[in-house]
Amino acid sequence: MSTLRTKYELYVTHMRKIQDVNSSIALMHWDNEVNAPIKGVKLRGQQIATLSAVAHDWSTSSELEQLLTSLYSQRHALSENEARNIELSLERFNTEKKLPTKFIKLFSAAQTNAFHSWLKARKAKDYSIFKNDLKIIVDLLKHKTDLIGYKNHPYDALLNEFEKGATVKQLDVLFGNIRNELVVLAKNIMDNGNPSDKEFLKRHFDKKKQWDFGIELLKQMGFDFEAGRQDISEHPFTTAFSSRDVRVTTRIEEGNLLELIGGCVHEGGHALYEMGLESEYYGLPLGMATSLGIHESQSRLWENHVGLSLSYWKANFESMKKLFPVALGDVTLIQFYKAINQLAPNCLRTVADEIHYHLHVLIRYEIEKGLIDGSIEVESLEEIWNQKYKDLLGIVVPHSTYGVLQDVHWAEGLFGYFPTYSLGSLYAAQFFAKASEDLPDLQEQISQGNMKGLLEWLRTNIHQYGKKYDSEELCKRITGEGLNFKYFIDYAKEKYSHIYNIPLDVLNKEIEI
Amino acid sequence: MSTLRTKYELYVTHMRKIQDVNSSIALMHWDNEVNAPIKGVKLRGQQIATLSAVAHDWSTSSELEQLLTSLYSQRHALSENEARNIELSLERFNTEKKLPTKFIKLFSAAQTNAFHSWLKARKAKDYSIFKNDLKIIVDLLKHKTDLIGYKNHPYDALLNEFEKGATVKQLDVLFGNIRNELVVLAKNIMDNGNPSDKEFLKRHFDKKKQWDFGIELLKQMGFDFEAGRQDISEHPFTTAFSSRDVRVTTRIEEGNLLELIGGCVHEGGHALYEMGLESEYYGLPLGMATSLGIHESQSRLWENHVGLSLSYWKANFESMKKLFPVALGDVTLIQFYKAINQLAPNCLRTVADEIHYHLHVLIRYEIEKGLIDGSIEVESLEEIWNQKYKDLLGIVVPHSTYGVLQDVHWAEGLFGYFPTYSLGSLYAAQFFAKASEDLPDLQEQISQGNMKGLLEWLRTNIHQYGKKYDSEELCKRITGEGLNFKYFIDYAKEKYSHIYNIPLDVLNKEIEI
């Protein structure tokens, strides 16, 4: 028994050391996007590559392999949580081992280069500045799918990195539903409903005041500023160096109030998940988010089901109005609520409404799949992108910064990540329905600015478990069934029937056409 | 020959990897002082400890040892600079090898803990909060002197880490001179001269405007904001992740204009040295500052000989006055120049005048020496500190934040560092005298806000060499002689005779008493 204990402790120490290195890499990435001067970029890339190689070496060391195989064979003598840590670590080990250190270093350097040519390309509104570095990323990822291996489609190998068990086969069905149902729903709402004015959202909103308001929103959600901070970056993101140091970023536009609110509440949702992970499991699977889909369910739940709800603005509209008496002086709560929930096809994913959002994800999913299986070339990516936006959303992309260059993900080598945005949104609807059932006065609490009940529910049902349960199992444990598209559709229909004054049965009937 | 070439390249790659890790550690330290939320501190300490162990392992690996000994034996076939890199790397290797990885980890963790208890202790003005962590640092350092070894005094082992070749024996003489000459000089000036009003420096100076002004001063010096940045921290410092990413910090007080100016120009001087190192030598000795004394000579040269000169304010006083028309409206250039150069004993080192400054360093030198050789106990440090300030500067320390807790150095485990401040100041006087000889219109250039000539002189004579020459050799190459106390004394007498309207011969005579 004492040998088993010693081995488990050695395993924990080993995993924590890997996490230490990964946290320092995460800090360098954060610093690159928040602080780093432009001339330091090349050497920073080399620094990240060196540390990535260390993390990879340690993650694939024979010492770890021996510990894991030995502990796995004795897992029945471990506690349930310990055994689960071992099982998941071994699984991860077997994948990591397939990637040679040389590949990790090349990929890490490619990420840094691509990120910075993406920044330059955005500034110049010129996709061609980015494309060579993107080509390198795509070629490396194709190679990665061969290294990792896959059953049916090479893209499955990449999906699995972010959402265990996800496959092209399943996602083709899911995005088929999205294409069939949501294109029609969006069209029906816009054709039959009464749009509301939303022009006032583009009035002048002082940056400093927006920043301060964002901080207040984060505090209200339960974001702990002694265990995290907010900064400004080109593209909002959340990163965690431990559950005690979680960082969100946001961007602020003087003529667009929604950019800030959406950013803070969305990233705040991610951050609360990271802050809610058990710090005793630092570095171990049970101390990590179970999947990106579940991670996104947290940001989307806060962003859509809280931040875009009438209850939320009952709590916050008056204090916001005090900050912006000129810009919002003539605006009522209901006008504001309707304005922030107007549907309109738009070329930017991050400011998309809740329904069109999934069409943005669908386009990225199809493109990634195509780039990885070779049916789409990086060279012609911009044309394909623009064509899909025309076909599916009916809009013309004005230039590449509002088109193919809008997201940071590909510049960071993240392929297989986008689909988790739709998964997350669907999980969010399903979780929020269940939370509303468990907490009958949830809307009342939210309308009083009291988010404690909701946060507690999320901590209890989701955050505390880390990777203990996979996404699908977690969903079943909480809601009694696997992911079900119906919750999102029901939620969307009810919400927009109210906002657009369309009887629910009209929307229901129309859908069947 | 090709084997030699290959070996040298392997050596370069190895050294760069070590630098990559050290740069990521430096980023974590920087982030700790600039950004990090308080609850993340413990795990951050662990992260730094893990990476410090990696850097140490690589710095003491048998692979590196073989490369170095082999290359050293063939050094005559290398270029002069290559041979120097090998020689210095081997020297460093032999020291590093004496420190076991376990010690490095313990010390790294102790640094992090001490830094944060120092922060807490400062807030509470209570030395006792800090003292246990300081005791751990001191005990570890005592152990370190045994590990490294020394000839005469254990403190020599620590001094050598920052200033190669420095010894207690030499410094006792140097600080003996300081005690004998500067106590008398300061007293003579204050007794015989006419003090000027400096109360207006404590008027209200808007923080944001101070910040902007500081940025302009840095730009004027030649600080490249595409290769660096400035932030706010508790204690100003400079750190570099490469010569292309150099970071300075400053602190701003609304009622103290000098805090900012001193901070910016001083740290800016450090930063220009780092920016002036050859980036082709990244990770190699010739790409690193030769010693802390020379590093400090750069900050002091800019701070004292430029930033506190009349010429400098001829260039900058009017633009500063425009920023603070209320606070400085009734102040003339000469009044300002005299005000910022008033002598007065003060309990804070960082705001000390140029003469009393050395007495602050002397006190720290004596205390460090005593802590390391056991003649002073951490327990009674505060009393000893306060007594020395009473004896040497004639002042009563109001509380520990203005006393024994004022500097971050001990909290960061930096013992042997303080003496380099005095060395730097003396080197600065000697270098500036030589620069003034080489550039006859230097004062004229400075008074026009043109710092290019001076920066070029520093780049050519000092920055570009990195560790190619040790401090003393560098000083001889530039000025034709080793460090000579006379340059500082001559400079100080001339400057203060002017500011206090005391004939130079009066000061000269008095000194001999």
Q: Care to describe what's here?
A:
- 2 copies of one chain form a homodimer.
- Helix content of chain A is 65%, strand content 3%.
- The mean pLDDT of chain A is 95.
- Chain A is globular, with a radius of gyration of 23 Å.
- By secondary structure, the first copy, chain A, is mostly helical.
- The longest helix of chain A is centred in the first third of the chain and has 33 residues.
- In chain A, a hairpin with a 2-residue loop joins strand 2 and strand 3.
- Chain A has a 3-stranded mixed β-sheet with strand order 1-3-2, sandwiched between helices.
- Chain A has 22 helices and 3 strands.
- In chain A, helix 17 crosses helix 21.
- Chain A folds into 2 domains: 132 residues; 344 residues, Neurolysin, domain 3, CATH 1.10.1370.30.
- The interface between A and B is large, with 37 and 38 residues.
Task: Give a brief outline of the structure.
The structure is a homodimer of 513-residue chains. The first copy, chain A, has 513 residues and is mainly α.
Name a few traits of the molecule.
homodimer, 513 residues, mainly alpha, Neurolysin, domain 3, 2 domains, three-stranded mixed sheet, 3 strands
Report the uncertain regions of chain A. none
Mean pLDDT of chain A: 95
Number of helices of chain A: 22
Class by SSE composition of chain A? mainly alpha
Helix content of chain A: 55-70%
Strand order of the largest sheet of chain A: 1-3-2
What distance separates the N and C termini of chain A?
Answer: 66 Å
CATH class placement of the largest domain in chain A = Mainly Alpha
The major β-sheet of chain A equals: 3 strands, mixed
CATH architecture descriptor name of the largest domain in chain A: Orthogonal Bundle
Oligomer: homodimer
Number of separate structural domains of chain A:
2
Query: Topology as H/E string of chain A?
Result: HHHHHHHHHEEEHHHHHHHHHHHHH
Total strands of chain A: 3
**Shape summary of chain A:** globular
Of all protein chain pairs, which has the greatest interface, and how many residues does each chain bring to it? A-B, 37 and 38 residues
